[in-house]
Structure formats: structure tokens, C-alpha cells
UniProtKB/TrEMBL annotation:
Its EC number is 2.7.13.3. SUPFAM superfamilies: ATPase domain of HSP90 chaperone/DNA topoisomerase II/histidine kinase, Homodimeric domain of signal transducing histidine kinase. Keywords: ATP-binding, Kinase, Membrane, Nucleotide-binding, Phosphoprotein, Transferase, Transmembrane, Transmembrane helix. It comes from the Bacteria. It is found in: Membrane. This is histidine kinase. Residues 215-418 form the Histidine kinase domain. Gene3D superfamilies: 1.10.287.130, Histidine kinase-like ATPase, C-terminal domain (3.30.565.10). It is an enzyme of class 2 (transferase). It comes from Amphritea atlantica.
Length: 426
């Protein structure tokens, strides 16, 4: 619109300059003929004023008498009407239903006032300007469409890179890759670099932490062996402190063995890797079948393939290990395991056909070091450890009687998304 107005004003200025020049030509053609009075010498005017309806007109007033160009035919140039266009002595009017610019000015010649009015048809100019305006609109639309296509192409290219990054993150979670692949999109490459740096840093820190725990536990075994020898000496001498210290020493040794086993099992885990419950259950069941070989236990599994643990692998191993170890310890012959995940949480259910736990004693079972049956081996830490892990992941644990098997039923529910701040507080 701005360009169209600018071009129209330029055209009006060009026509106004020509009308001003023609006005002086017409004024020069006004002559005094002795005997006939004032007249217009048409030989001194342009030929376009002699052609009827040529689009170029003039009319001149001298002493109240009007002289008209032949091109006006029987019409006249309207006076004192029209639209001001910002040019001196120039108005825009409608002449014979066509737009025209009119120049009007009064001159003095030979002591007489002479009013000169010239008009020029600008319908062709307006038509050309309209065509130019539509052409510019068309070119603008084409340019806009090209820009939109380019923008969509750029956005799709960026989103394609993000889609590849998303697929790489899924592969990273499943353990297929250890780092995200590089991308050709310059804007996304820093994000990929930062994620790779974060994964690598987490992996190093986790590995160092596990190694430190394993080394500490391994280093503690030698001093503990020396202590055991002194305990044996106390027992041989019949000292009353011997059995108490011996019990605490055995408890400490089992805790060290547990930490060493945990560090060994979790050594290959990657940070961010999705840990599927079914895969870990198979490994644990093979180990427990070997430990409780004399019971010939039967494991009945109902585990969905998409069930995964929303946390670290060693926590899952410890959680399942304690749940299944308790079940194996008390089961007669059968253990039933269910694991399913919906859009909110992971649900784990372990049932056995053992004697079960009375309702009034189930709360005590969660206390650290609490043992309901002193005739079996153990230190009363299993359910306490399970409860602690569930609490860290903001989950729930419930104890009940198994209706189909008659023993204890342990149900654990873990949310898929954990609030990191609450975990840190725990």
C-alpha cells in the first residue's frame, strides 16, 4: 500500500509538471486581434488539444469570455470542484466519468486577467498503477509463500533432528548405546553435547561411588578376620563377652558381603538405562534356585515385558533379592510373582505358600532388626531394607495374606516419576 501511494504521487507530480508547462504555452497562444478581440491562436498550441476527446483539454477566460479547446467537444472543465492532491493549483476531478488532473491559474497579460484551466485524463495511469499494485501484491504473496515453505522446511529439519535425538535417548535408556549420536543441526548440537557430558559424568561418578563402597567393604574384611581370631580366643577362655561380640562380628561380616555382592552386581549398569523387571527376575531366580536347591521351589511368573524399574538397577536387585529371599525362606514349594506397569506406577506382588504372618505382627516386620521367628537364620534386615527402598522412591508397601497360596503376600507400588527433591530429603 505504501509503495502504491508513493508511485501514484510520483505520477501525479509528473502530470502536474507537464500541465504547468502547457499552461504557459496556452497563455502564449492568447492574442489580441485588432477588430476581432481576444482569441486563441491554435497554431501555437499542441495538436492534442484539436483532437476531440483526446484526453488533453484547456479552457481560457478573458474578460468573462471563455475559449474552449476542440478536444473538449461540447463539455467543459468543472471549476472549483475536485480533490486536493497536495500540488499547487492542481485538483483531481472526474471528467466524462474518468479521473483527470486539472491545472487552474490566473495570469496577467497586457493588463488583463486571463484564467487558464488545463485538464489531462489519467485513467490509463490509474489503470497502470492498479495493475502494478496487483502485480506487487501477487509478487508479495509469492514471496510470502516461498518464505513459509522455507520456514516449514527449516522447522521440519530441526524437528527431524530432535526426533533422532529422542530415538537415541530411548536407545540410551535401553542400554543399546552409551552416548547420543552427533547431529548436523547446529542449534541442537550443544544440547546433544551437554547430554553426553552429563551421562558420562554420571557414569564416572556412579562407578567411583560403587568402587569406593566395594573397596571399603573389601578392606574391612582383613581387620574383621583379626577380630574374629580374638573372639575365638575369648570363646576358648570361656569369657562371657565372647558370644555377644561373635554375633555382632557375624552381622558385620554379612553386611560387608552384601555390599560387595551389590557392588559386583551393579557394576555394569549405565546411568539412565531402563531396567526391565523381567530380565533381573530371571537372573535372581536362577541364583535362588541354586541356594534353595533342596526345596525344589516352583516360581510362577506373570511379568509384563514393558515393566521397568523407575530407578537404579542395584536398588531393584536389592529390592527383588530381599523380597524373593524372604519368600524362598518361608515357602513350602511355590512362589508367585506378578509385575505390571501402567501409566502411573509399577506394581510388584510376591506371594508364597508358607505359614504367612499374622495381621497384628505385620507392622513389626517392617522394623529394623525385628525377627518374628528366632528359629530361622537371618538378621531381620530384609523387610526393613525393602521398606527403606520403597520409601526412597515414594512408593507404598502392603502386607497381606495370599488367598490362592495361603502364605504372605507382599505388594509394592512404585510411581513412574519420582520427585527428586523428596528423594534427596529421604
Amino acid at each position: 500500500m505504501g509503495q502504491s501511494w508513493f508511485l501514484r504521487q510520483m505520477a501525479y507530480e509528473f502530470v502536474a509538471a507537464r500541465l504547468t508547462s502547457d499552461a504557459y504555452t496556452v497563455l502564449r497562444a492568447v492574442e489580441m486581434d485588432i477588430g476581432a478581440g481576444w482569441r486563441i491562436n491554435v497554431d501555437n498550441t499542441s495538436s492534442v488539444y484539436q483532437q476531440p476527446m483526446s484526453g488533453h483539454y484547456y479552457q481560457v477566460a478573458v474578460d468573462g469570455k471563455w475559449f474552449f479547446s476542440r478536444s473538449l467537444w461540447d463539455s467543459q472543465i468543472p471549476a472549483e470542484v475536485g480533490q486536493d492532491i497536495g500540488q499547487d493549483n492542481i485538483r483531481l476531478i472526474q471528467q466524462n466519468n474518468k479521473p483527470a488532473l486539472v491545472y487552474s491559474k490566473t495570469f496577467m497579460k497586457q493588463g488583463r486577467e486571463i484564467q487558464v484551466m488545463l485538464a489531462e485524463d489519467i485513467s490509463r495511469i490509474e489503470e497502470s498503477l492498479n495493475q502494478l499494485g496487483w502485480l506487487m501484491v501477487g509478487l508479495g504473496l509469492i514471496g510470502l509463500i516461498i518464505l513459509l515453505v522455507l520456514q516449514i522446511s527449516i522447522i521440519r529439519r530441526g524437528l527431524r533432528s530432535l526426533k533422532e535425538v529422542k530415538q537415541d535417548i530411548s536407545r540410551l535408556k535401553s542400554g543399546e548405546i552409551r552416548q547420543l549420536s552427533s547431529t548436523n543441526t547446529q542449534e541442537i548440537e550443544p544440547l546433544v553435547t551437554e547430554i553426553n557430558y552429563l551421562v558420562q559424568n554420571m557414569e564416572l561418578r556412579l562407578q567411583r561411588s560403587r568402587n569406593a563402597v566395594g573397596n571399603l567393604a573389601h578392606a574391612a574384611k582383613t581387620p574383621l578376620t583379626v577380630i574374629d581370631r580374638h573372639i575365638d580366643t575369648l570363646l576358648e577362655q570361656g569369657m562371657p563377652q565372647g558370644p555377644v561380640i561373635k554375633e555382632q562380628s557375624q552381622r558385620l561380616r554379612q553386611m560387608i558381603d552384601r555390599e560387595l555382592t551389590r557392588a559386583r552386581i551393579a557394576g555394569a549398569a549405565l546411568p539412565g538405562q531402563r531396567i526391565y523387571v523381567g530380565e533381573e527376575l530371571e537372573k535372581l531366580i536362577r541364583t535362588l534356585k541354586a541356594i534353595y536347591r533342596e526345596k525344589a521351589l516352583v516360581f510362577d511368573l506373570d511379568v509384563s515385558a514393558k515393566s521397568y524399574f523407575p530407578g537404579e538397577r542395584d536398588d531393584l536387585v536389592e529390592l527383588l533379592g530381599n523380597l524373593l529371599d524372604n519368600a524362598c525362606k518361608w515357602a513350602e514349594s511355590q512362589i508367585r510373582i506378578n509385575a505390571h506397569m501402567d501409566e502411573h506406577c509399577l506394581e510388584l506382588i510376591v506371594e508364597d505358600d508358607g505359614p504367612g504372618v499374622p495381621a497384628e505382627a505385620r507392622e513389626r516386620l517392617m522394623n529394623r532388626g525385628e525377627r518374628l521367628d528366632e528359629s530361622t537364620s537371618g538378621h531381620g534386615l530384609g523387610m526393613s531394607i525393602i521398606n527403606e527402598i520403597v520409601r526412597q522412591y515414594q512408593g507404598r508397601i502392603m502386607l497381606d495374606s495370599s488367598e490362592p497360596l495361603g502364605g504372605l503376600k507382599v505388594m509394592v507400588m512404585l510411581p513412574r516419576r519420582v520427585d527428586p527433591e523428596l528423594v534427596k530429603q529421604n
